[in-house]
Amino acid sequence: MRVLFYTVNGKGLGHLMRALAVARQMRRLAPATRFLFATSCEDPGVLWREGFHYVKTLAPEAIEDHKMGLERHRTMVSAFMRALFEGFRPDMLVVDSFAYGSIGELRPFLDGPWRRVLISNLFLLQRDVERYRQSVTYYDLVVFPFHREEAAGHPALARLPTSGFFAGPIAGVRPDDLLPRAEARAILGLPAEGPIVLVAAGGGGGESVAPVLARVAAALPLMPDLGFALLEPPLARELPAIAWGPNVRIVRRVPIAPCFAAFDGAISTAGMNSAAEMMTAGLPMVWTPLGPPSVDQDRNVRRWMGAGIGRTPADETPAALAAAVRDVLRPETALAIRGAMAAGWSVDGASRAAMAILRVPRTPRPPAAEAGPIPAEKGSDDANGKPANG
After folding, report:
1. What pairing do the DSSP bridges indicate for beta strands 248-251 and 227-231?
2. Is residue 50 part of a domain?
3. Which of 79, 213, 294, 337 could form an S-S bond across to 290 if both were Cys, CB 3.0 to 4.6 Å?
């Protein structure tokens, strides 16, 4: 079987890493499957390192830089996708988030002979409900990387016009993938002894990362007794000009999740994928969500804090951030957070999604009725196994 994954990312990594997590488990369950990724992520090298082939399209930011205009971009990327489908001849198309593609370039291929799967995050349900419901009719299966209860009562899911599956949070790491603490620290070049806190700011290509790192840097002098490991954002062309103290090491490793046992806690932004990985590893964290253009990280933090997962600083001061870090390092706090994670959040959503996708019938559903022109998308950045419409 040949599977084509489509992900739009540009200066982020979230969509790509979630698709990679699912593809990794599909390969484990069906080793003869061949995969190809079509992505706009500016740093897709992680796919190559994981043994997956890819082709890259221009990211939205590149289109703006070249001043190509929407219609010229649409013409170019549509021709690119047509050549890709004709050359690769997929048996299945798996799309992350944007059902029609970023500017509608997938629409001509949603009535082809291949099976079609959409991975649809919670953020998309908050948008145009009718347009969302129309878009999913083109798909044989919609996989939701969250719990059923998180979207309970949402009108987009009422009598969903296609099959849906709540996989739960999709992480790029399974418990069996986690390395022992000593081995993880050795791989990362970290001291063998002493507490170390991970600082993770996401993919790093956006302008909202610098304020988060500056906030962390301001709090570090209040924690000279702790070690810190700053995960260099893989899409950052350069780190902000911050004088990191002697207790900070810069680490460069993507994916880093198998090495999470090296850390005692984390200061983390609130992307769904990195959060799911930390929950799988049982890593207690302090949330420092990204600001605009991200529109969903504050919402994510409210969800997780409501479930008892992680802590947030009491205010914006360095002292409040330092106090929150010390709190999550306390054994009783860490134990409580890990207990909340284990109560349904640290599920193997990637394997569950992979199994559901591999069970999609070989005969794709009939194409949906036409719904008019499709405008360009604007991105953001239950584990009970019951169908969404049943």
Report:
1. parallel
2. yes
3. 294
- In this predicted structure, what is the pLDDT of residue 10? 67
Contacts of residue 61, defined as CB under 8 A and 6 or more positions apart, other chains included, come to: 10, 11, 42
Percentages (nearest 5) of helix, strand, coil residues in the chain:
40, 15, 45
* Contact yes or no for 33/121 (Cβ under 8 A): no
- Give percent of the chain above pLDDT 90: 58
Give the per-residue pLDDT at 72: 84
CA distance 169 to 273: 8
Indicate whether 291 and 150 sit together in one domain.
no
DSSP 8-class letter at 249: E
Question: Is 370 part of a structural domain of the chain?
Answer: no
Of 229-233, 317-321, 345-349, the range with the lowest mean pLDDT is 345-349
- Whether 106 is in a domain gets the answer yes
- CATH code of the domain containing 38: 3.40.50.2000
Q: Dihedral of CA 378/382/383/388: which sign?
A: negative
Instruction: Please tell me the pTM assigned to this model.
Output: 0.85
Same domain membership, residue 210 and residue 147 = no
Domain of 286, in residue numbers: 175-342
Higher pLDDT, 382 or 239: 239
Domain count of the chain?
2
Which among 267, 193, 203 is positioned nearest to 225, based on CA atoms? 193
Distance (Å, rounded) from C-alpha 171 to C-alpha 159?
28
Q: Please state the φ and ψ torsions of residue 19, each to the nearest 5 degrees.
A: -65, -40
Helix (H, G, I), strand (E, B) or coil at 176: helix
Same domain for 163 and 114: yes
